[in-house]
Amino acid sequence: MSPKKRFGIIFILGALATISPFSIDMYLPGFPAIARDLNTSIDQIQLSLTSYLIGIALGQLLYGPLLDRFGRKNPLYVGLVVYVLATIACAFTQTANTLIAMRFIQAIGGCAGMVAALALVRDLFPVNEIAKVLSLQTLVISVSPMIAPTVGGYVTAAFGWQFIFIVLAGIVAVVLIGIYFALPAGHPPDKTISLLPQPVLQNFYTVLKNPQFLTYMLAGGIGAAAPFAYISGSPDVFMNIYQVSEQEYGWIFALLAAAMIGSTQLNTPLLKWFSSEQLLTFALTLQTLVGAILVVGAWANWYDKYALIFLIFIFLAGQGLNVPNSSALSLTPFARQAGSASALLGCMRMGAGALASAAVSVLHNQTVLPMVSVMFFCAVLGFVILQIGKKQIKTNAPSPGEVNAHISETETPLSVKE
């Protein structure tokens, strides 16, 4: 594969992987303006984020079998066209309920990009390059929360919140063109793959019966829902309670996203001295303690915006250690069923995130307390599940080298041919 072709493929796959992060984060600075224009409350607008997360959770279970049965590109085309149409509809919506519904459809369509991007990396690159390519994708995904709200803040201030959705639709339309002309087809369709509910559900059930998978999926997934409570509640907290502008909110969001990016980058060197289980335990312990401080301080009204930003920064730093380690520990027991396990893992995280987002909306009382309370609850529940579940796991957590070897042995990518 020529360097130019390789760069083009990685660029398109990176763009696919960032569709949902941009769709989640870019419109956050517009929450107050959307609520005003649609004559509703901000907690109703928060439900449009919840509906998007539900769509992502369900979509991951949907696209796995479809991408295997019909090949990579055809389901991808359909999903992204649905995304573009639903996104345009979001820009012209006149009611909060319509926005909530369109965001759900938007997520179902955009989710195709998340699932297909991962599948195509496995299809198109040799085994010894997969980790490197996925690292580049992860870096792009991690950086997007720093960029998207900042861009969204300036777009909202200059042109109005509707233009955010026009920009998103335009970006994905360009990506569609790139997929058609520059992205290889990947693995061919497999007509032996069954789409009937019974075999698909049986496969999922087999995965869920594994105690190691269930423990780390639940502990990591519920813990990983805490940032979604922050994402849902932060526009109201910072722009309405602390009265920052759309542009300032974008910069605050970028700063707090840096906490997750930094700890994610630290995870690899830390694994030389600590196991994934130790790092996950530390992350959930840290988030539980900081979450308790956040709740007590918010209840007592101790914090100005700077103190709140500082504590949330520390809380979110734990997230960069949670996700990669809980994922590795969850997926290690599987060879043939790694795809089903990955789909369930993603569904669990987004489903828990949707519940956390909805809880912030339901508990909304024009204070900081609902946001930080849900963040704390997610952390402490994840910690408790981890401690109880570890007693049910008889095997020790594998080392990072064993995890990588296990993945390498069970995947056989198709190299791109000139």
UniProtKB/TrEMBL annotation:
Subcellular location, in the record's words?
Cell membrane
Any GO MF annotation of the entry:
sodium:proton antiporter activity
Keywords of the record: Cell membrane, Membrane, Transmembrane, Transmembrane helix, Transport
Name the principal localization, coarsely classed.
membrane
Q: Quote the SUPFAM superfamilies the UniProt record gives.
A: MFS general substrate transporter
Membrane-spanning segments? 45-64, 76-94, 100-121, 133-155, 161-183, 213-231, 251-267, 279-300, 306-323, 343-362, 368-386
Q: Which residues form a coiled coil?
A: none
BP terms from Gene Ontology:
xenobiotic detoxification by transmembrane export across the plasma membrane
What the entry lists under InterPro entries is as follows: Efflux_drug-R_Bcr/CmlA, MFS, MFS_dom, MFS_trans_sf
- Pfam families reported in the protein's UniProt record: MFS_1
This protein's source sits in the domain of life called Bacteria
State the residue spans of region: Disordered: 396-418
Membrane topology per the entry is: Multi-pass membrane protein
Q: Which residues form the Major facilitator superfamily (MFS) profile domain?
A: 9-391
Task: Give me the Gene Ontology terms describing cellular component.
Answer: plasma membrane
Family of this protein = Belongs to the major facilitator superfamily. Bcr/CmlA family.
Spell out the PANTHER family in the cross-references. MAJOR FACILITATOR SUPERFAMILY, POLYAMINE TRANSPORTER 2-RELATED
> What is this protein's record name?
Bcr/CflA family multidrug efflux MFS transporter
